[in-house]
Amino acid sequence: MSETADFNVDDQGVLRFSGELTLPRLRDLPDRLDTLADPPARIDLSGVGRIDTVGAWLVHKLARDSGAQLEGASKDAALLIDQVAQADQPVQVRPDYVFPLARVLAQIGRSTMTAWHTLLGLIGFFGAICIAFASVIRHPRRFRGNAVTRQFEVVGVDALGIIGLMSFLIGIVIAQQGAVQLRQFGAEVFTINLIGRITLRELGVLMTAIMVAGRSGSAFAAQLGSMKLAEEVDAMRTIGVSPMEALVLPRVLATVVLMPLLGFYASLVAIIGGGILCWISLDIPPATYIQRMREVVPMTDLWVGLIKAPVFGAIVAMAGCFQGMQVKGNAEEVGLRTTAAVVQAIFLVIVLDAFFAVFFSSIGWD
User: Fold this and answer.
1) pTM of the full predicted structure?
2) Using 50, 70 and 90 to split pLDDT, how confident is the model at 96?
3) Interval 29-52: pLDDT, tens
4) pLDDT digits (tens, 9 = 90+) for 142-199
5) Are 152 and 243 part of one and the same domain?
6) Residue 86: Cβ within 10 Å count
7) In this structure, which of 15, 91, 94, 285 has its CB flanked by the most CB atoms within 10 Å?
8) Residue 99 forms part of a structural domain
9) Tens digits of per-residue pLDDT, 309-362?
10) CA–CA gap between residue 312 and residue 352 (Å, rounded)
11) Does 98 fall in a domain?
12) 127 and 71 share a domain?
């Protein structure tokens, strides 16, 4: 029959437990222990039949508070009490105060290290794409034409509407703002120069890259991230299919090929939008607008935009696929990596655009 937990203290200050130190048998034992006049010098557990986690915590707490030495415990009881003692760690409810400047510097340091590791990861990912591309060249049968064609539709054809609308409105805004400023000097005709050069050289390709990053780059990250969570990528590796060749390479190739076409299309639509506003607001006929555009816009502006476009496309596709392949853990990671892909792609595109501007100016293409 189970015995109720009890204890007694002898003249030498040894507290001897008896019975079963389990939750149903403790009864008022904890309250009686709290009323002890003198803390015990030693705690004897030789008379204990069974002990559970609650009993082990009771013994550990008594020994911790009184500084008593445990003795007579069975092997299992000693192991359980030791496990409870290891788990008895202070809980820090509120973190220690950190000087605000130190906290800001620590955050900057963590962000810097994250950016550095991401850059190294992107470089390594670019190397993996190059290896996959070389492998496909050596084995043309492994080239997935259907996948590339499908990405042509997703990245290019489906994006024509939003890119055209955005570019048309940008052309109108550039023309309107340029005309307002140039009217102060009686030079409204130079609005055509502003529209032609800035759309073909900068804004047409740049805004297209940003739109593709927000639309297709995020889709790449979400698609590959979902496949990672569903272990489809691991399954492809198991059956001998390279994810880089089957998933990443078609998306990168499609984006690189289509970006020059989308950039040129966006520039033309922006020029049309600016021309309509010049016709309505400045009374410049379309024929005069086109003739003036041909005179003031050099061919180098077109080449600048077409050279930058495939580089921007590669950056956008790489950022989206890289972040998608980094997904692990749970579905929340898909959203975080998708956001990171868009931010990363837009940031790198703008940084590279600044480098291109300096480079082309230095070789006289300004």
Assistant:
1) 0.72
2) low
3) 888 888 887 888 888 888 888 888
4) 898 899 999 999 999 999 999 999 999 999 999 999 999 888 888 888 999 999 999 9
5) yes
6) 9
7) 15
8) no
9) 999 999 999 999 999 999 987 888 899 999 999 999 999 999 999 999 999 989
10) 8
11) no
12) no
Retrieve residue 325's tokens: 């392949």
Residue type at position 226: S
Token pair 């082990």 in the structure block, residue: 56
| Domain assignment of residue 96, yes or no | no
